[in-house]
Amino acid sequence: MTERRIDSLLNAMWEDYLTLNPDARRIHDLFAGLNNGVVINDHIALRTFNNDKVCLDKIARPFLEAGYQPKGDYRFDTKKLVAKHFEHEDPELPKVFISELLVEELSEEAQAIINSLVDQVDARDLGKDIFCYSGRHWDIPFATYSQLLGESEYAAWMSAFGYRPNHFTVSVNHLQSHDCLEALNQLLLDEGFSLNDSGGLIKGSPDVFLEQSSTMANRIAVDFSDRTVEIPSCFYEFALRYPLPDGTLYQGFVAASADKIFESTNVTGR
Ligand code: OOG
Ligand code: NI
């Protein structure tokens, strides 16, 4: 079968993601080794600002064109974010979780910084699939990143990394090697990876039909316009879904858990 445009897009996003998160390759290979080479993704996550030019709906375009449909809406008041998730009828394709920062809820100073970053994006680039993993479209000195960090970890992450997958997520339901997150987390801890402990190692429960855990983002050297600094980049997530009363697996997200998962890219203590 010839590769679909969506498959090549997702593959290119995976390759970009691995350059920022070398731990993900080691973890992927660990699970691939235990599961006949097969690791299925539950979802990928993308981030953006809510400025018209780059808003959530613009980021969703290539996925909508590939047949994805919007399924769930989420709000994160303290983090000043909203999000949607999209599903495709092909169960082999990962769900796509896209969030956007409500820029007008930040200080005037932060708004001015973010607007000036977004001004540097060429609107025509939004029409290209490669936008999804095109990274930063702006120059940013380290002090400006630090200023955003004081108000929003999410804004700071976006300002440093731009447009690229924030994380991929292993579908634990598809693993033969593991049927619970406790053992999977223990394996990762034994292998020396650090996990996000905000709200506990496991977020969610069978009661909400979804359990999730994630690594803490890899730290990588980022070139700001004036200096190079090591900061958290991308993380890897693990999701175990439970059946609804009708027997089908729950496919949505859980806002209270997602709220904690966002913190996997935090720089400062929780
Ligand atoms: C998204 C965090 C939420 C989930 O699976 O609940 C999430 C992000 O960090 O951009 O991925
Ligand atoms: Ni996620």
TrEMBL record:
EC number: 1.13.11.93
Cofactor(s) it depends on: Fe(2+)
Signal peptide: none
Superkingdom, taxonomy of origin: Bacteria
Pfam family, one: HGLS
Gene3D superfamilies associated with the record: 3.10.180.50
PANTHER family tied to this protein: 2-OXOADIPATE DIOXYGENASE_DECARBOXYLASE, CHLOROPLASTIC, DUF1338 DOMAIN-CONTAINING PROTEIN
Protein name per UniProt: 2-oxoadipate dioxygenase/decarboxylase
